[in-house]
Amino acid sequence: MTPDEALLEVRDLRSGYGASVVLDGLSFSVGVEAVAIVGRNGMGKTTLCDTLVGFVAPSGGEVRLSGRRLDGLAPETIAIAGIGYVPQGRRLFPSLTVDEHLVMLARRARGRRWTPDAVYDLFPRLAERRRHGGADLSGGEQQMLAVGRALLLNAPLIVMDEPSEGLAPTIVDVLVDAVHQLVAEGVAVLVVEQNLRAAVRMAGRQLVMVSGRIEAEFTGAELLDRPDLQHRYLGVGATIGEHA
Ligand SMILES: Nc1ncnc2c1ncn2[C@@H]1O[C@H](COP(=O)(O)OP(=O)(O)OP(=O)(O)O)[C@@H](O)[C@H]1O
């Protein structure tokens, strides 16, 4: 891959639920970088994530990872092909410990960059809680575990849906640092965020989603400096995220 070539290429993607169209011809690309998708509630951000990873079947368009078509493939195939997913709400197993979540995926990870021990190095707090069950973990610990689980795929791209949702500022700091470390190591991150300040700290490019399309792209500084753009694209109350 040359520096100019996109890792993820999404072209004219369409999807929805039955007759309800949510993604309406959406296009963008991501290189080895962190890119944020921002937008008001209900614009289709979660549907975009779910469509990229195969949980929602697209009705048209293309998703390519390093040139390989992935649209229409099963979620397991897409995961193995190279898209790790950190879903909204984390979707962990309450009865499994932290260690059990990670060990489940460790065989495939053996000898590669991301192993359970590497995840514990990234998130020392998780190492302290390794014998605790998913249901005993704080929201931040659950989010770290969800990120760690996605990393064990050793995928070139990680998609994160609202990772900062409901988390204390110190935990958001940990996630921001983790995103920077991943990008520095050559992993691309596509992150959906309601919290503009968290989005801007994680990603240089801010893609604004409106009614199932990417309507505009800004740098973080452009969006933070322009309350009019925040109001227009993000709505009242979903703007700055003062606490992150
Ligand atoms: N499983 C589903 N079945 C039918 N419609 C759905 C389903 N999930 C989402 N939708 C609809 O799709 C549209 C886009 O929702 P989506 O959750 O993708 O938006 P979003 O931008 O992620 O919003 P939010 O930030 O509130 O999660 C909404 O109109 C929503 O009601």
TrEMBL record:
Keyword Nucleotide-binding: yes
Hydrolase as UniProt keyword: no
BP-aspect Gene Ontology terms: L-amino acid transport
Domain of life: Bacteria
Keywords, comma-separated and alphabetical: Amino-acid transport, ATP-binding, Nucleotide-binding, Transport
Entry-linked PROSITE patterns: ABC_TRANSPORTER_1, ABC_TRANSPORTER_2
InterPro entries tied to this protein: AAA+_ATPase, ABC_transporter-like_ATP-bd, ABC_transporter-like_CS, BCAA_Transport_ATP-bd_LivF, P-loop_NTPase
SMART domains the record matches: AAA (SM00382)
ABC transporter domain segment(s): 8-236
Pfam families in the record: ABC_tran
MF annotations from Gene Ontology: ATP binding; ATP hydrolysis activity; branched-chain amino acid transmembrane transporter activity
Family of this protein: Belongs to the ABC transporter superfamily.
Record's protein name: Amino acid/amide ABC transporter ATP-binding protein 2, HAAT family
UniProt source species: Jiangella alkaliphila
